[in-house]
Specification:
There is one protein chain. This protein has a seven-stranded parallel beta sheet with strand order 8-9-7-10-11-6-12, with helices on both faces. Helices cover about 30% and strands about 20% of the residues. It contains 18 helices and 27 strands. It folds into four domains: about 80 residues, PriA, 3(prime) DNA-binding domain (GIY-YIG endonuclease, 3-Layer(aba) Sandwich); about 160 residues, 3-Layer(aba) Sandwich (Rossmann fold); about 160 residues, 3-Layer(aba) Sandwich (Rossmann fold), CATH 3.40.50; about 60 residues, Alpha-Beta Plaits (2-Layer Sandwich). The protein has about 550 residues and is an alpha/beta fold. β2 and β3 form a beta hairpin. The radius of gyration is 26 Å and the shape is globular.
């Protein structure tokens, strides 16, 4: 529910109620939680006001309450979702004293001063580049006007950055743990994507680290983006907003002015890239080519990456060569860890039997992490643990010398000397709008894992001259941006247009009510809404009546 109701404030709470305060109210015979969105409002004369049932402590300030209304329009969601994100994880009844002015003198280099002189800037910082000087300069700049916000994709890196700032004498607070210290003001708020909703009345400066990273985007609807939220806050407060990224997206480049660091600095932050052309490889070797085996046996900490979980992602009958498909929906089936055939579309399972000839012997055309871990263990002479991003994934194995896993291993495996992408064509040829950008982002994450020039990244591919590989080899991400811009501009794709993906049982009913300068394509429970710009798209979605059936609206979908 996302509606407003009028209540009276008992005399004993008059001094404690303000916009954003968390309260308990009686609604339809039940006590529910909510937020105060306005005070001193004249209620309709025909109603009798009920008093507030209770106070739940501090909530987001009035400025963030107003921002939640904008976000509800921007991502076709409800204000309550954003207000919950902006609220403290526990009841806060008293705020500490504001942090005093920092006595630490921060000397900014020319690039940092250049970035802070612009309202919107995008800094192309190499994967192994040091973010601490940037955080210090931007944090100190923002404290002068009430506080700063620094958003980092992962919790571990956010905690590390907060410690670095504190060790250097700057007042930093980690969100959401130190919500009350941030609400008091005068600090540098550091956290993951929810830190974009930090309870500061005024943002003096803000920075987004790795603005290309999809972890900065909420996966559940409404699918808001932390970088966009921070940009809006800084625009409202007239403050500089900086995005750091080794491979800025087209959305980043269209949003702000690009600042490129000296060539030697950028070149030093990318590792040597060894490209193995699988067109010349012996097909009997499969993905574990002699070069891969040699790299695993050579010593050092190694991680092998392939984005296919389970034993096999595509199977064929060894007798009649027929591809194994689902008997229910016809999609290709893979082999799960239990050895059963499983459909990724409908979830149907069956034993390993060919539907055409009845043979029980199948061969893997696209082996997954589980099967490759078994083969690699046999070649290496010791067990190779498997890492993935599954909810039940075992954290054990991250300290092993050699590991294999999906791209989640690039976050979980710690520092490595060598990263091997066993089948990079799966990323380069993915049927997605942003496949090129996402493939380059994986290489950038691998580059950071091996500490730039100190390590090595090995890529197996049948497209050795692909623009993504040329960009990583020459440490020039602009090559990918130029290629993507030309293609998307000619096709009218984002960021040169706006899109929303509407799915679920109520999708057809919702898009039927979408009117204006928009185009709708799709059928049944999946529709794509396109508009020439974000304003037209969000206005059209805001005017459309919401159906009673379940529906999911994903504005700016990342994987289509």
């Amino acid at each position: 529910m996302d509606r407003e109701f009028h209540y009276s404030v008992p005399e004993r709470w008059r001094d404690d109620v303000r916009e954003g305060t968390r309260v308990r109210v009686e609604l339809h015979g039940r006590r529910v939680g909510g937020w105060v969105t306005a005070v001193a409002v004249d209620p309709p004369k025909e109603i009798e006001l009920k008093p507030l049932a209770g106070l739940s402590g501090w909530g987001p300030p009035a400025e963030v309450v107003a921002l939640a209304g904008w976000a509800a329009w921007r991502w076709a969601g409800r204000r309550a979702h954003f207000l919950a994100t902006a609220s403290p994880p526990r009841v806060v009844r008293h705020l500490p004293a504001p942090a005093g002015p920092s006595s630490v003198a921060v000397l900014a280099d020319p690039a940092t001063r250049d970035a802070l002189s612009e309202p919107r800037s995008v800094v192309r910082l190499a994967p192994a580049g040091d973010i601490v000087p940037w955080a210090m300069a931007i944090g100190a700049k923002g404290i002068e006007r009430g506080g700063s916000i620094i958003v980092v994709p992962t919790g571990a890196r956010a905690a590390w950055l907060a410690r670095q700032l504190i060790q250097r004498g700057l007042p930093a607070a980690l969100l959401p743990d130190d919500w009350d210290a941030v609400a008091a003001g005068g600090v540098i708020a550091v956290g993951t994507r929810s830190a974009a909703w930090a309870p500061l009345r005024q943002v003096g400066a803000a920075m987004v680290v790795d603005s290309h990273d999809e972890a900065l985007r909420e996966e559940r609807a409404p699918t808001w983006d932390a970088a966009e939220v921070l940009a809006e806050r800084c625009d409202r407060d007239g403050s500089p907003c900086v995005r750091l990224s080794p491979c800025p997206t087209l959305e980043d480049l269209e949003w702000g002015r690009l600042i490129v660091l000296p060539r030697a600095d950028e070149r030093g932050g990318w590792p040597p890239l060894e490209v193995l052309d699988r067109r010349e490889a012996d097909p009997r070797d499969g993905l574990l080519t002699p070069r891969v085996v040699a790299a695993v046996r050579a010593g050092g900490r190694v991680v092998c990456v392939i984005n296919r979980r389970g034993r096999a992602g595509l199977l064929a009958c060894a007798a009649c060569q027929t591809v194994a498909t689902c008997e229910k929906c016809g999609d290709a089936v893979g082999q799960n860890q239990a050895g059963m055939l499983e459909c990724g579309r409908c979830g149907e399972r069956r034993p390993q039997i060919c539907l055409d000839c009845g043979s029980g012997k199948l061969k893997a055309l696209r082996p997954g992490t589980t099967r490759l871990a078994e083969h690699l263990s046999a070649l290496a002479g010791h067990p190779i643990p498997e890492l993935s991003g599954a909810a039940h994934a075992d954290e054990a194995g991250t300290d092993e010398r050699v590991v294999i896993g999906t791209e989640a291993a690039l976050r979980r495996a710690g520092r490595r000397d060598t990263v091997i992408f066993l089948d990079f064509d799966q990323e380069l040829l993915a049927p997605r709008l942003r496949a090129g950008e996402q493939a380059l982002a994986l290489l950038a994450r691998a580059a950071r894992m091996v500490r730039g020039r100190q390590g090595r990244v090995i890529v197996q591919t049948r497209q050795p001259d692909h623009v993504v590989l040329r960009a990583a080899r020459s440490a020039d991400p602009g090559l990918v941006a130029d290629a993507e811009r030309a293609q998307r501009d000619s096709l009218g794709l984002p960021p040169f247009s706006a899109m929303a993906l509407v799915t679920g049982p109520g999708a057809e009913e919702l898009v039927a009510g979408v009117h204006g300068d928009v185009a709708v394509a799709g059928h049944a429970e999946r529709h794509l809404v396109r508009a020439p710009d974000t304003t037209s798209l969000c206005d059209a979605l805001a005017r459309a009546p919401r159906p009673s059936a379940r529906v999911r609206v994903e504005v700016d979908p990342r994987r289509i």
